[in-house]
Design brief:
The chain has one domain: Four Helix Bundle (Hemerythrin (Met), subunit A) (Up-down Bundle). The chain is built from eleven helices and no strands. The structure holds heme C (HEC). Heme C (HEC) binds next to helix 6, helix 9 and helix 11.
Length: 202
């Protein structure tokens, strides 16, 4: 018994130190690389102000942004986010037209294209107001993404299954996500005039 008691801690300690070593080992390269390669490339195109903000993001948040970019297979060369937003709107409208005309194939195709929208020149971060480029505000992005793109995929799946009423039901979920993201990240209503004396009501 005494010997057992004496020996017993050894594997425990071993296991404990292995467990302790694993997260540490996983963290070292992450910290060393500091940032995913695609983000490093994008950083080179950022203004000093934006670069500073992005450097200050937590490794977790940087990973999240990288994942959001990596989840999209199409990259724009010169296209801005606003232009891509118009592509997204065109796809959304195409889905609406497809649903209204019982065209399941177009509904599915346009919804999937919306979900896999192109990533603008410089990535998403370049187009958010600087004061929103922080862990707290950007932390909602995966949720926004899920509401818009997750529901677009569900819509496409329903259309593929021939269930058009179900497909149609996701349209308002998707638009709820568009509106939520605009409330948070779009600097102002589009096209505000600098030549009007009284600013917009909101
Ligand atoms: C990740 C947040 C986010 C989501 C989700 C999002 N948008 Fe946007 N959208 C923006 C931002 C930020 C701008 C302003 C970009 C700029 O002006 O540089 C914008 C701009 C736009 C514009 C250009 C006109 C304007 O307001 O400046 C359109 C059109 C648009 N979005 C449509 C949509 C539609 C449709 C959806 C949903 C299918 C959607 N957006 C989802 C963030 C988002």
């Amino acid at each position: 018994m005494k010997v057992m008691k004496h020996l017993a801690p050894t594997p425990l300690i071993l296991a404990a130190s292995l467990l302790a070593a694993c997260p540490a080992a996983a963290e070292t390269p992450k910290n060393a690389a500091a940032m995913p390669v695609e983000m490093q490339q994008m950083m080179k195109t950022y203004s000093p102000e934006l670069r500073k903000k992005v450097m200050a993001l937590s490794p977790e948040l940087k990973g999240t942004i990288q994942q959001l970019h990596a989840g999209h297979t199409r990259r724009a060369k010169e296209t801005t986010m606003r232009q891509i937003m118009h592509e997204i709107l065109a796809d959304y409208q195409a889905v609406a037209a497809a649903l209204a005309t019982d065209n399941a194939e177009l509904a599915s195709e346009a919804a999937r294209r919306l979900a896999n929208h192109r990533i603008p020149k410089g990535g998403l971060l370049a187009y958010f107001p600087l004061d929103k480029v922080n862990d707290n505000d950007l932390g909602v992005l995966p949720a926004m993404n899920e509401i818009v793109e997750g529901n677009a995929i569900k819509l496409a799946d329903a259309a593929d299954a021939g269930d058009m009423p179900k497909a149609a039901s996701y349209m308002s979920d998707i638009m709820t996500g568009c509106v939520a993201c605009h409330q948070k990240f779009r600097p102002a209503a589009p096209g505000v005039s600098a030549n009007l004396i009284s600013p917009l009501a909101r």
